[in-house]
Amino acid sequence: MRTRLTREMSAVANRIHKVLENTNVKLGLVATDVFGVSGRKMIAALINGETDTVKMADMACGRLREKIPLLQQALLGKVTGHHRFLLKALMDHLTYLEGQIDRFNQRIEEAARPFEKAITALIPMPGYDRASAQSVIAEIGQDMNQFATDAHLCSWARVCPGNNESAGKRKSGATGQGNRWLETILVQVAWAASRKKKSYFQAQYRRLAGRRGKKRAIVAVAHSILTDTYHILKEGTSYRELGGIRSPATRPDSALPVKRLQDLGYSVVLGERKVA
Where are the beta strands (DSSP E) in the chain? Predict the structure, then answer.
């Protein structure tokens, strides 16, 4: 339910952006967060019929005050009564949804107390925050003895390649349909992890995205995250970052580029190979 409310809140926020764009108010181009303290004050002023851009720009707080001249230009628009009606209705709806999400957050915190140890153990992993850790634990539980191996968990969650083979011919490797709530949150965690600088997951994503595509790469990262989640919960270990240079496969028969060997601390001397 919290996920549904969050999606609805995002949709309402997008509608507010669209209404502002229709009025030629370019607040989103200047303010990083239109729905921060400063942005909400300016939108409220627009709803109340304020047309003085100097007064509205002066409502900026913190570092946004450095952009007051830009705000004065961005707030120049043609806001009609219809636009003010829409903005008021949408902002009221946004406030309501935020209140509902806060209610669910409080209830989830109460229900998650018995699982606090498992939730806390997942948070250090790149991509996870408290809400995503709670969502994953809610779907898979904290007792990993119900899954024989990490591969069984990934197969149950459908974040691994499918196995559609007939007469020795591979027909499809699609992941198939699994727990859609778990899949959604794992993909969100994977996207966040792929942006974590100098992390194993970022290196894995970049290595795969170039030759396999972004979507396949992000599912592979989600698979790795769920695998690590399994071992952290089952073995009671803490997450250990391998770093970006450890991501590529390091099989004995794999060829490592010179720069990667240098990053690993080896001194490499290239010479001409003699042909017998």
Answer: 164-166, 169-172
89 within 8 A of 8, measured Cβ to Cβ: no
CA-to-CA distance for 74 and 29, rounded, in angstroms? 8
pLDDT tens, N- to C-terminus, the chain (276 residues): 999 999 999 999 999 999 999 999 999 899 889 999 999 999 999 999 999 999 999 999 988 999 999 999 999 989 999 999 999 999 999 999 999 999 999 999 999 999 999 999 999 999 999 999 999 999 999 999 999 999 999 888 888 765 666 666 766 556 667 778 898 899 999 999 999 988 999 999 998 998 889 988 999 999 999 999 999 999 988 888 887 654 444 444 455 577 777 777 888 887 777 765
Of 202, 220, 127, 156, residue with least CA distance to 135: 127
Cα dihedral across residues 85, 91, 95, 101: positive or negative: positive
- Nearest 10 degrees: Cα torsion 266, 269, 275, 276: -70
CA–CA separation, 134 and 215 (whole Å) = 25
How far is the C-alpha of 112 from the C-alpha of 207, rounded, in Å? Answer: 36
Nearest to 38 by CA among 47, 27, 29, 49: 27
**Residues 6 or more apart in contact with residue 255 via CB below 8 angstroms:** none
260 within 8 A of 248, measured Cβ to Cβ? yes
Q: For residue 36, which of 64, 8, 15 has the smallest C-alpha distance?
A: 64
25 Rama sector, left if φ>0, alpha if ψ -120 to 50, beta otherwise: beta
Angle between helices 150-157 and 214-235 (to 10 degrees): 130
d(CA 222, CA 220): 5
CB atoms under 10 Å from CB of 218, counted, come to 21
pTM: 0.72
